[in-house]
Amino acid sequence: MTAPSQDSSSTSALPRCIVLTGFMGSGKTTVGPLVARRLGWSFVDVDDVIAAEAGCTIPELFRRDGEAAFRERERATIARLAGGDALVLALGGGAIEDEETRTLLLTAPDTLMVHMEVELATTLARCGGTEHLRPVLADEANLADRYARRLPHYRTAHVSIAVDALTPEEVAEAIVKAALGRPADPQNN
Fold it and tell me: Is the pTM of this model over 0.70?
């Protein structure tokens, strides 16, 4: 499927899969469906697939099986889904730490990995009140350590977009422009 209102020469370079990565609160699950809608593609959140297949929530999986088992399940799910066509795929925030996953997504043909970069202060503002879903939020020192540890990995993505001051629609537009090989300037839609 081609992007709306684009000539055929610009759509031939369109990737077949756009992968969204970034720290919690960056807006992956909000922006992903907007990007998919603009392109006429499907949107899939990896965490939703994992939870549906496991029959429980992600926090329950962590408690029941531990983080290592969860990350193994996550890696296999991403590898399976990343082969899809006309797909916008949102990763969980920690998926980027897995070297095998990073390598797969950075080297997969016709796949564009987009880092939605968010400041830690923005994460805290956007995610406040969700500590029951994201227990790590209650421990700001641990959260800051995770953020610092993951940021260099996020920045290995093909494209990074600072999203703190942008609306979800502006971020979606910047991602579509990046996918089409155009400069991502969300301020000048």
Answer: yes
* CATH among 3.40.50.150, 3.40.50.720, 3.40.50.300, 3.40.50.1820 for 19-179: 3.40.50.300
Q: What is the pLDDT of residues 45-90, one digit of tens each?
A: 999 999 999 999 888 888 899 888 999 999 999 999 998 899 999 9
On whether 84 is known to bind a ligand per the annotation, the reply is: no
- The verdict on whether residue 25 carries a ligand-binding annotation is yes
Contact yes or no for 117/22 (Cβ under 8 A)? yes
Q: Is 42 annotated as a binding residue?
A: no
Confirm whether residue 149 is marked as ligand binding: no
Q: Are 94 and 71 in contact (CB under 8 A)?
A: yes
